[in-house]
Specification:
single chain; 6-stranded mixed beta sheet; binds alpha-D-glucopyranuronic acid; 15 helices; alpha/beta
Length: about 350
Protein backbone atom coordinates (compact mmCIF):
# COMPACT_ATOMS: atom_id res chain seq x y z
CA UNK A 1 0.00 0.00 0.00
CA UNK A 2 1.27 3.43 -0.78
CA UNK A 3 1.38 5.84 2.09
CA UNK A 4 -0.27 9.20 1.53
CA UNK A 5 3.23 10.83 1.72
CA UNK A 6 4.49 8.61 -1.12
CA UNK A 7 1.35 9.40 -3.08
CA UNK A 8 2.06 13.09 -2.74
CA UNK A 9 5.68 12.61 -3.92
CA UNK A 10 4.55 10.64 -6.93
CA UNK A 11 1.99 13.30 -7.77
CA UNK A 12 4.57 16.12 -7.60
CA UNK A 13 7.02 14.09 -9.70
CA UNK A 14 4.48 13.45 -12.44
CA UNK A 15 3.46 17.11 -12.51
CA UNK A 16 7.14 18.06 -12.96
CA UNK A 17 7.62 15.48 -15.69
CA UNK A 18 4.58 16.75 -17.57
CA UNK A 19 5.75 20.35 -17.27
CA UNK A 20 9.28 19.50 -18.48
CA UNK A 21 8.08 17.30 -21.34
CA UNK A 22 5.62 19.94 -22.36
CA UNK A 23 8.37 22.55 -22.38
CA UNK A 24 10.59 20.32 -24.53
CA UNK A 25 7.91 19.55 -27.07
CA UNK A 26 6.98 23.25 -27.32
CA UNK A 27 10.65 24.06 -27.96
CA UNK A 28 10.48 21.84 -30.99
CA UNK A 29 7.45 23.63 -32.27
CA UNK A 30 8.39 27.27 -31.83
CA UNK A 31 11.91 28.66 -31.72
CA UNK A 32 12.63 30.80 -28.70
CA UNK A 33 13.60 34.33 -29.90
CA UNK A 34 17.36 34.81 -29.50
CA UNK A 35 18.13 37.56 -27.06
CA UNK A 36 21.07 39.50 -28.55
CA UNK A 37 24.29 39.50 -26.56
CA UNK A 38 25.13 42.90 -28.03
CA UNK A 39 22.96 45.73 -29.33
CA UNK A 40 25.12 48.27 -31.15
CA UNK A 41 24.35 51.70 -32.59
CA UNK A 42 25.29 52.76 -36.11
CA UNK A 43 25.16 56.48 -36.96
CA UNK A 44 24.52 57.70 -40.50
CA UNK A 45 23.99 61.31 -41.54
CA UNK A 46 22.17 60.52 -44.79
CA UNK A 47 18.46 59.80 -45.30
CA UNK A 48 17.13 56.25 -44.95
CA UNK A 49 16.85 55.62 -48.70
CA UNK A 50 20.36 56.94 -49.52
CA UNK A 51 22.86 54.31 -50.80
CA UNK A 52 25.17 54.50 -47.76
CA UNK A 53 22.25 54.12 -45.34
CA UNK A 54 20.95 51.20 -47.38
CA UNK A 55 24.47 49.76 -47.09
CA UNK A 56 24.28 50.19 -43.32
CA UNK A 57 20.96 48.33 -43.14
CA UNK A 58 22.46 45.55 -45.25
CA UNK A 59 25.46 45.41 -42.88
CA UNK A 60 23.13 45.09 -39.85
CA UNK A 61 21.10 42.39 -41.60
CA UNK A 62 24.21 40.37 -42.49
CA UNK A 63 25.69 40.66 -39.00
CA UNK A 64 22.44 39.45 -37.48
CA UNK A 65 22.31 36.55 -39.91
CA UNK A 66 25.93 35.40 -39.49
CA UNK A 67 25.82 35.68 -35.68
CA UNK A 68 22.43 33.96 -35.45
CA UNK A 69 20.98 37.05 -33.84
CA UNK A 70 23.67 37.38 -31.14
CA UNK A 71 24.72 40.80 -32.48
CA UNK A 72 22.12 43.37 -33.34
CA UNK A 73 22.98 46.69 -34.98
CA UNK A 74 20.51 49.55 -34.87
CA UNK A 75 21.00 52.02 -37.70
CA UNK A 76 20.11 55.66 -36.93
CA UNK A 77 19.90 57.73 -40.16
CA UNK A 78 19.38 61.48 -40.76
CA UNK A 79 22.15 62.61 -38.38
CA UNK A 80 19.83 62.06 -35.40
CA UNK A 81 22.88 61.05 -33.34
CA UNK A 82 24.84 64.17 -34.32
CA UNK A 83 27.00 65.56 -37.09
CA UNK A 84 29.82 63.56 -38.67
CA UNK A 85 32.65 65.02 -36.58
CA UNK A 86 30.78 64.57 -33.29
CA UNK A 87 29.91 61.00 -34.24
CA UNK A 88 33.53 60.11 -34.96
CA UNK A 89 34.54 61.59 -31.59
CA UNK A 90 31.89 59.49 -29.89
CA UNK A 91 33.20 56.39 -31.63
CA UNK A 92 36.66 57.09 -30.27
CA UNK A 93 35.28 56.79 -26.74
CA UNK A 94 32.82 53.97 -27.41
CA UNK A 95 29.67 56.12 -27.04
CA UNK A 96 28.56 55.08 -30.53
CA UNK A 97 29.66 51.76 -32.01
CA UNK A 98 29.64 52.16 -35.80
CA UNK A 99 29.38 54.83 -38.47
CA UNK A 100 30.09 55.65 -42.08
CA UNK A 101 32.07 58.83 -42.57
CA UNK A 102 33.44 60.98 -45.36
CA UNK A 103 37.19 60.79 -44.65
CA UNK A 104 37.89 64.46 -45.27
CA UNK A 105 36.37 65.26 -41.86
CA UNK A 106 39.03 63.07 -40.18
CA UNK A 107 41.95 64.22 -42.32
CA UNK A 108 43.00 67.06 -40.00
CA UNK A 109 43.48 64.42 -37.27
CA UNK A 110 45.09 61.82 -39.53
CA UNK A 111 46.89 63.99 -42.14
CA UNK A 112 47.91 61.01 -44.24
CA UNK A 113 44.23 60.64 -45.22
CA UNK A 114 44.59 63.81 -47.27
CA UNK A 115 46.48 61.73 -49.82
CA UNK A 116 43.25 59.87 -50.72
CA UNK A 117 41.30 63.14 -50.94
CA UNK A 118 43.58 65.17 -53.18
CA UNK A 119 41.81 67.08 -55.97
CA UNK A 120 41.85 65.42 -59.38
CA UNK A 121 43.77 62.42 -58.02
CA UNK A 122 41.88 59.52 -59.57
CA UNK A 123 41.56 59.04 -63.33
CA UNK A 124 38.14 57.42 -62.95
CA UNK A 125 36.08 55.21 -60.63
CA UNK A 126 37.89 52.06 -61.76
CA UNK A 127 41.22 53.60 -60.82
CA UNK A 128 39.86 54.66 -57.43
CA UNK A 129 38.58 51.15 -56.64
CA UNK A 130 41.81 49.53 -57.76
CA UNK A 131 43.63 51.72 -55.22
CA UNK A 132 41.13 51.34 -52.38
CA UNK A 133 40.58 47.61 -52.82
CA UNK A 134 44.31 46.95 -53.08
CA UNK A 135 47.16 47.04 -50.57
CA UNK A 136 47.11 50.83 -50.34
CA UNK A 137 43.45 50.83 -49.35
CA UNK A 138 44.11 48.20 -46.68
CA UNK A 139 47.05 50.18 -45.26
CA UNK A 140 44.80 53.21 -45.00
CA UNK A 141 42.07 51.18 -43.26
CA UNK A 142 44.71 50.13 -40.72
CA UNK A 143 45.82 53.66 -39.83
CA UNK A 144 42.48 54.58 -38.22
CA UNK A 145 43.57 52.47 -35.24
CA UNK A 146 45.94 55.24 -34.10
CA UNK A 147 42.79 57.28 -33.38
CA UNK A 148 40.86 54.53 -31.56
CA UNK A 149 38.91 53.59 -34.68
CA UNK A 150 38.76 50.43 -36.77
CA UNK A 151 38.50 51.03 -40.52
CA UNK A 152 36.22 48.31 -41.89
CA UNK A 153 35.45 48.96 -45.55
CA UNK A 154 35.30 51.60 -48.28
CA UNK A 155 31.97 52.96 -49.44
CA UNK A 156 31.39 54.90 -52.66
CA UNK A 157 30.59 58.61 -52.70
CA UNK A 158 31.40 59.30 -56.35
CA UNK A 159 32.89 62.62 -57.37
CA UNK A 160 32.00 66.09 -56.15
CA UNK A 161 30.99 68.99 -58.39
CA UNK A 162 30.12 72.64 -57.80
CA UNK A 163 26.58 74.00 -57.69
CA UNK A 164 25.66 77.65 -57.51
CA UNK A 165 22.65 79.91 -57.21
CA UNK A 166 23.10 82.96 -59.43
CA UNK A 167 25.40 81.96 -62.24
CA UNK A 168 27.15 78.87 -63.54
CA UNK A 169 30.86 78.27 -63.01
CA UNK A 170 32.23 78.06 -66.53
CA UNK A 171 35.72 79.27 -65.87
CA UNK A 172 38.14 79.78 -63.00
CA UNK A 173 37.25 83.46 -63.01
CA UNK A 174 33.60 82.64 -62.23
CA UNK A 175 34.54 81.16 -58.87
CA UNK A 176 36.35 84.31 -57.86
CA UNK A 177 35.01 85.67 -54.56
CA UNK A 178 32.11 83.21 -54.49
CA UNK A 179 31.22 81.91 -51.05
CA UNK A 180 31.32 78.15 -51.44
CA UNK A 181 30.35 75.78 -48.67
CA UNK A 182 32.81 72.93 -48.17
CA UNK A 183 33.31 70.24 -45.54
CA UNK A 184 35.23 71.33 -42.50
CA UNK A 185 38.80 70.28 -43.37
CA UNK A 186 41.95 72.29 -44.07
CA UNK A 187 42.39 70.69 -47.47
CA UNK A 188 38.88 71.45 -48.74
CA UNK A 189 39.05 75.02 -47.43
CA UNK A 190 42.41 75.59 -49.08
CA UNK A 191 41.13 74.09 -52.30
CA UNK A 192 38.41 76.75 -52.53
CA UNK A 193 40.88 79.51 -51.62
CA UNK A 194 43.39 78.44 -54.26
CA UNK A 195 40.62 78.41 -56.87
CA UNK A 196 39.83 82.01 -55.91
CA UNK A 197 36.67 81.45 -53.88
CA UNK A 198 35.81 81.99 -50.22
CA UNK A 199 35.31 78.76 -48.27
CA UNK A 200 32.48 78.58 -45.76
CA UNK A 201 32.00 75.69 -43.34
CA UNK A 202 28.42 74.82 -42.62
CA UNK A 203 27.10 71.54 -41.26
CA UNK A 204 25.77 69.26 -43.99
CA UNK A 205 22.20 69.44 -42.62
CA UNK A 206 22.34 73.28 -42.57
CA UNK A 207 23.52 73.81 -46.14
CA UNK A 208 19.96 74.08 -47.45
CA UNK A 209 19.15 77.07 -45.24
CA UNK A 210 22.56 78.63 -45.92
CA UNK A 211 21.70 78.52 -49.63
CA UNK A 212 18.20 79.78 -48.98
CA UNK A 213 19.31 82.78 -46.92
CA UNK A 214 22.13 83.63 -49.32
CA UNK A 215 24.78 83.04 -46.64
CA UNK A 216 26.60 81.11 -49.38
CA UNK A 217 26.64 81.40 -53.17
CA UNK A 218 26.99 77.70 -53.72
CA UNK A 219 28.33 74.42 -52.50
CA UNK A 220 29.81 71.23 -53.88
CA UNK A 221 28.78 67.62 -53.65
CA UNK A 222 28.04 64.46 -55.63
CA UNK A 223 24.82 63.95 -57.62
CA UNK A 224 22.98 61.81 -55.04
CA UNK A 225 23.63 64.30 -52.20
CA UNK A 226 22.67 67.26 -54.38
CA UNK A 227 19.44 65.39 -55.12
CA UNK A 228 18.56 63.95 -51.71
CA UNK A 229 19.17 67.24 -49.85
CA UNK A 230 17.12 69.12 -52.49
CA UNK A 231 19.84 71.76 -52.75
CA UNK A 232 19.06 71.78 -56.48
CA UNK A 233 15.81 73.58 -55.72
CA UNK A 234 17.82 76.67 -54.84
CA UNK A 235 21.19 76.22 -56.56
CA UNK A 236 20.22 75.29 -60.11
CA UNK A 237 23.62 75.47 -61.82
CA UNK A 238 25.63 72.25 -61.54
CA UNK A 239 29.18 72.36 -62.91
CA UNK A 240 30.70 68.97 -63.59
CA UNK A 241 34.43 69.17 -62.95
CA UNK A 242 34.74 66.18 -60.55
CA UNK A 243 37.29 68.14 -58.53
CA UNK A 244 37.45 65.72 -55.64
CA UNK A 245 36.54 62.11 -54.86
CA UNK A 246 36.34 61.61 -51.13
CA UNK A 247 36.25 57.97 -50.14
CA UNK A 248 33.85 57.06 -47.37
CA UNK A 249 34.78 54.61 -44.69
CA UNK A 250 32.81 52.33 -42.42
CA UNK A 251 34.20 52.58 -38.94
CA UNK A 252 33.89 50.69 -35.68
CA UNK A 253 34.78 52.14 -32.31
CA UNK A 254 37.98 50.55 -30.91
CA UNK A 255 36.50 50.08 -27.40
CA UNK A 256 33.53 48.26 -29.01
CA UNK A 257 35.85 46.20 -31.21
CA UNK A 258 37.85 45.06 -28.21
CA UNK A 259 34.73 43.67 -26.53
CA UNK A 260 34.28 41.22 -29.42
CA UNK A 261 35.89 37.81 -29.85
CA UNK A 262 38.24 37.49 -32.82
CA UNK A 263 35.63 35.26 -34.47
CA UNK A 264 33.00 38.00 -34.21
CA UNK A 265 35.51 40.57 -35.44
CA UNK A 266 36.03 38.44 -38.56
CA UNK A 267 32.26 38.24 -39.09
CA UNK A 268 31.97 42.03 -38.78
CA UNK A 269 34.76 42.54 -41.30
CA UNK A 270 33.20 40.13 -43.77
CA UNK A 271 29.78 41.81 -43.42
CA UNK A 272 31.31 45.27 -43.79
CA UNK A 273 32.95 44.26 -47.05
CA UNK A 274 29.79 42.59 -48.38
CA UNK A 275 27.73 45.63 -47.45
CA UNK A 276 30.25 47.88 -49.22
CA UNK A 277 29.88 45.89 -52.44
CA UNK A 278 26.13 46.25 -52.09
CA UNK A 279 26.39 50.00 -51.47
CA UNK A 280 28.72 50.51 -54.44
CA UNK A 281 26.17 48.89 -56.76
CA UNK A 282 23.38 51.08 -55.37
CA UNK A 283 25.64 54.10 -55.72
CA UNK A 284 26.11 53.65 -59.47
CA UNK A 285 22.35 53.30 -59.96
CA UNK A 286 21.55 56.27 -57.73
CA UNK A 287 24.12 58.53 -59.40
CA UNK A 288 22.57 57.86 -62.81
CA UNK A 289 19.03 58.20 -61.49
CA UNK A 290 19.73 61.53 -59.73
CA UNK A 291 21.53 62.93 -62.76
CA UNK A 292 18.65 62.08 -65.09
CA UNK A 293 15.98 63.28 -62.68
CA UNK A 294 17.68 66.63 -62.04
CA UNK A 295 18.46 67.28 -65.69
CA UNK A 296 14.75 66.74 -66.39
CA UNK A 297 13.70 68.97 -63.54
CA UNK A 298 15.42 72.05 -64.87
CA UNK A 299 18.94 71.95 -63.42
CA UNK A 300 21.42 73.54 -65.81
CA UNK A 301 24.36 71.17 -66.15
CA UNK A 302 27.59 72.63 -67.31
CA UNK A 303 30.62 70.56 -68.32
CA UNK A 304 33.98 72.35 -68.11
CA UNK A 305 35.85 72.41 -71.40
CA UNK A 306 39.10 70.39 -71.44
CA UNK A 307 41.05 73.61 -71.55
CA UNK A 308 39.23 75.06 -68.56
CA UNK A 309 39.47 71.81 -66.62
CA UNK A 310 43.22 71.92 -67.10
CA UNK A 311 43.28 75.41 -65.59
CA UNK A 312 41.44 74.10 -62.51
CA UNK A 313 43.82 71.15 -62.28
CA UNK A 314 46.87 73.37 -62.56
CA UNK A 315 45.51 75.80 -59.99
CA UNK A 316 45.28 73.12 -57.27
CA UNK A 317 48.73 71.62 -57.91
CA UNK A 318 50.45 73.54 -55.07
CA UNK A 319 48.12 71.72 -52.65
CA UNK A 320 50.04 68.52 -53.35
CA UNK A 321 53.25 70.08 -51.98
CA UNK A 322 51.36 71.59 -49.08
CA UNK A 323 49.52 68.44 -48.00
CA UNK A 324 51.52 65.50 -49.36
CA UNK A 325 55.17 66.51 -49.10
CA UNK A 326 55.89 63.56 -46.80
CA UNK A 327 53.88 61.16 -48.93
CA UNK A 328 54.94 62.08 -52.46
CA UNK A 329 56.02 58.50 -53.27
CA UNK A 330 52.61 57.27 -52.24
CA UNK A 331 50.91 59.92 -54.38
CA UNK A 332 53.01 58.88 -57.36
CA UNK A 333 52.24 55.23 -56.67
CA UNK A 334 48.50 56.00 -56.58
CA UNK A 335 48.65 58.09 -59.74
CA UNK A 336 50.49 55.31 -61.58
CA UNK A 337 48.38 52.52 -60.17
CA UNK A 338 47.16 50.42 -63.03
CA UNK A 339 43.69 48.95 -62.82
C1 LIG B 1 28.48 63.75 -48.64
C2 LIG B 1 28.80 62.70 -47.61
C3 LIG B 1 28.33 63.12 -46.23
C4 LIG B 1 28.89 64.49 -45.91
C5 LIG B 1 28.51 65.47 -46.97
C6 LIG B 1 29.03 66.88 -46.72
O1 LIG B 1 27.12 63.85 -48.85
O2 LIG B 1 28.19 61.49 -47.95
O3 LIG B 1 28.75 62.18 -45.30
O4 LIG B 1 28.44 64.92 -44.65
O5 LIG B 1 28.98 65.02 -48.22
O6 LIG B 1 29.28 67.57 -47.69
O7 LIG B 1 29.16 67.29 -45.57
Amino acid sequence: MLTSKKCLHLFILSVFTIVILNGCSNNHLKKEPVIPEYVFTYAENQAADYPSTQGAYKFAELVKKYTNGRIEIQVEPNAVLGNEKEIVEQLQFGGIDFTRASISIISDDIPQLNVLCMPYLYKNAQHKWAVLDGEIGQEFLDIFKEKNLIGLSWYDAGARNFYTIDKPIKSLEDISDMKIRVQDSSLTNDMIRILGGIPVNVEFKDVYSALETGAIDGAENNWPSYDSTEHYRIAQYYTVDEHICIPEVQLCSLPTWERLTSEDQKIIQKCAYESALYERKLWVQQEKQSMEKLKDSGVTVNQLTDEELLRFQNAVKPLYEQYCLEYMDLVTEIKNYSN
